[in-house]
Amino acid sequence: MPIYNPEIECASRDYLHALQSARLIKMVKNAYENVPFYKAKFDEIGLKPEDIHSIDDIVKLPFTVKTDLRDNYPFGLFAVPKGDLVRIHASSGTTGKPTVVGYTQHDIDVWAEGAARALSAAGGTNNDTVHVSYGYGLFTGGLGLHYGAEKLGATALPASTGNTSRQIQMLQDFRSDIICCTPSYAMFIGETIRDMGIDPKTLPVRAGIFGAEPWTEEMRKQIEELLAIKAYDIYGLSEIAGPGVSYDCECQNGMHVCEDFFYPEVIDPDTLEVLPDGQYGELVFTCIGKEALPLVRYRTRDICALTRETCACGRTTVRMTKPRGRSDDMLIIRGVNVFPSQVEHVLLSLNMAPNYLIIVDRKNNLDLMEVQVEMSPDMFSDTVKGMEAEEKRIEAALQSTLNIHAKVSLMAPGTLPRSEGKAKRVIDNRKF
Ligand code: DLL
Fold first, then answer.
1. Which of 129, 211, 341, 411 sits CB 3.0–4.6 Å from 234 for a disulfide?
2. Into which CATH architecture does domain 331-428 fall?
3. Could you count the other beta carbons within 10 Å of the beta carbon of residue 120?
């Protein structure tokens, strides 16, 4: 299969090392000189940009975490003046405020290249139509694959999410070759196609690029059967770029990281020591190829392992396993990141006691979220209508912060389980 950028994707490890070293030196200088947060952090440990001579010195650098973005909300970690920005995206923060990320034109090109490499690794070419059913908007899924498709010279079809029968109609009429969406939505589309009595083999779609949430090898097989396609994984996160940070090739044996732009490490989340290849730990990225948001050793909280063995596809770039969990409590519900602390924040902002339980289920391959909220004795309303109105009020407030619908059920005072240790806030009945 053709490789989008063989010079990089099949480069020798020595070449990559030299490239990464040069880029790290440049990015550290950028971060130190243009982001007061990093200047203060480096000064605190007595580190100067001149102390960084090669990529091996990366271990001298401090880590960055999601709350650093929140503390510098919205633009405090940007290294470029506003005039140089061309795009802003955002993802869920841990409270009411989102995590905001910015891109220069160069950064958009870097990101589009990552997404183009992913599409090409899934067999995409300029002759293909790419049906993009990730959400468009502040979420990076839609625009990420869209720009990747255009960079590849393919035809992007910005279908966005929702209205599944219309999606299927478009797949039939526009003869799309590749579909991009979350794996759970792919399952839903596949089942709808089956229920409509359509033979998936009559659709020209031959590959799907699925990510933004965890999914298993079993789910891959099911999707491949339901849609009669080959299913490829794609990984990314807004803080680093969006989809295309890493991607499956035809071997489906770990995702190749665009390590010329995003340098990966795996650390022990407790000791913060770097772990050798093959060992599972928390994935950390340093943005060595970007200008606007030069994040240094950003802790993704995703748990995975790396391998630098050359892949049978010919690519030499490091591969990461599918993330097998997180080292924090973030949930991904219908592709949207949700932190229990956001729910707590909303309840507090409504002057309610934060006694709640989040229950997540998957029915017909769609995620459902329920929030059980305990009432305080004075909240009791003697009418059903009054209670329903209260549930609707909380639902609206949650929707506005979380960007997804959660069913709210008010519970009688004292009925939610109490814990003697850490409160158990989440029951996740989905199987990954
Ligand atoms: O989910 C970007 C993306 C869009 C990736 C479309 C792939 C496809 P965020 O909303 O910032 O960005 O969420 C990032 O989602 O830290 C992982 O926990 C999870 N995640 C993303 N891709 C995968 C994947 C986008 N392939 C967070 N497998 C990350 C498992 C994934 N988890």
1. 211
2. 2-Layer Sandwich (3.30)
3. 23
